[in-house]
Each structure stands twice: as C-alpha cells, then as structure tokens.
Amino acid sequence: MYHRNLIAIFSFFLLISCNSTRAKIDKNCMEQHSSRFSEPENSLYNLPFGVGESYELRQGNCTFHTHSVENKNEFAFDFIMDIGTPIHAARAGQVAAIEERFFDGNNKTSDFNYVAIAHEDGTFAFYIHITNSGVTVELGEFVEQGDVIAYSGDTGMESIPHLHFHVIELDDSCVENNVIGACSSIPISFKNASPNDKVLQQGVTYTAM
C-alpha cells in the first residue's frame, strides 16, 4: 500500500521539456553510471508498448540535450510512435497522477499530458506526451504490468510525436521543495526488449517480446 503523501505530492507542478532528436551522447555520464544498470533478465520493467510492436529509440540516456544530468532526466527514453498508439504499463503499480486536458501539436513546454505510476518500492514511472483525453486509467487505480494505461500523443514541446518514459525515485530535496521534476531519474533496463541491450541505444528499433 502506498503512503498517501507520496501520491498527493503529484499535485505540484512538474516541468519537463522534450524535443526528441538523436542527441549527442554524454560518454562521461554513461561510463559513470554503466554499473547501475541491471541485466535485462533481472529487470522489473517491460518496454512501455505492446508485445510484438517495434519502435525506434530516438533519444536515449545521457545526452547533452533534454536527457541530461542538468535536467535530472539523464535516464529517460523517447520512442517514436504515432498519435493514438496504446501505451502499456512497464511495471505494475498504482496510478499516482494524470493529466490529459492538453491538445496535440500545442508546442508549449509546460502543456503536456502524462500518467504517473507509483511502484511498490517507492519509485514512479512517467509516461509523457499522451494525447488529449488519452488516459484510460483512474487516479488511485492499480494496474498490472502490460495493461493499457493511455494513448500516445504530441502534447508539450517536441519535434516529433513520441512517448517519453522515465522512472524517478523520491529524494529529500525534491520532496522538501515539492517539485517532482527535481527528482532524479534512475537507470533501468527492459527484460523483454529485442535486441536485448542492457543499455538501450538511440537510433535502434526495439521490439517488445
């Protein structure tokens, strides 16, 4: 059972800007954190799309663009996909926050739709750029891994329709300041990705097995 205040904190403003490009990789970041990635077979996460479906990872981890250390977003993933593509829960959990009132193509940094899922270990997954009225779950609802939770879109500041996905863990600084966007993203692998890369590579098309 999740503590009530961990869910309530999502009522505060989350700021994220995603402009999905094949950005230059920060090799120092990758080298520093390479040991933090679990082996795929030990991962708790599936790719956030349907089994048998394939999507290109347009921007991966540790870049000098929006997935940077400065943005605390260095372990995020941008998968190119058409508006209306079903988004699946990468891991079981409880719906902690939703936003679905914004419209595709608005190109406004702060006006993006998303779903946040709280996991039993206190981490939270964000699924961002959801289409208008594209969330299929309710606040507080428990979802199983693989459940459809939303449909992808083109909301917020981005150059091409894609799903932005990342996982955070709460730390003292972001909780005290009530700014979820200041919480650090964490490195994850995917147990059902093909190719079965420990660290997903941008420019590669991945299939959910």
Structure description:
With 209 residues, the protein is mainly beta. The protein has one domain: Glucose Permease (Domain IIA) (Distorted Sandwich). It is built from three helices and eleven strands, in the order ααβββββββββαββ. Strands 1, 2, 3, 4, 5, 6, 7, 8, 9, 10 and 11 form an eleven-stranded antiparallel β-sheet that branches. Strand 5 and strand 6 form a beta hairpin. The N terminus is likely disordered.
Brief synopsis:
With 209 residues, the protein is mainly beta.
Key structural traits:
mainly beta, about 210 residues, single chain, eleven-stranded antiparallel beta sheet, Glucose Permease (Domain IIA), globular
Low-confidence runs: 1-8
Q: Count every helix, treating DSSP H or I runs of 4 or more residues as helices.
A: 3
Per the CATH scheme, the topology name is Glucose Permease (Domain IIA)
Q: What is the CATH domain class?
A: Mainly Beta
Number of E-state strands: 11
- Helical proportion, percent range: under 10%
CATH superfamily: Glucose Permease (Domain IIA)
How far apart lie the N and C ends?
30 Å
Counting copies of identical and different chains, the oligomeric state is single chain
Beta-strand proportion: 25-35%
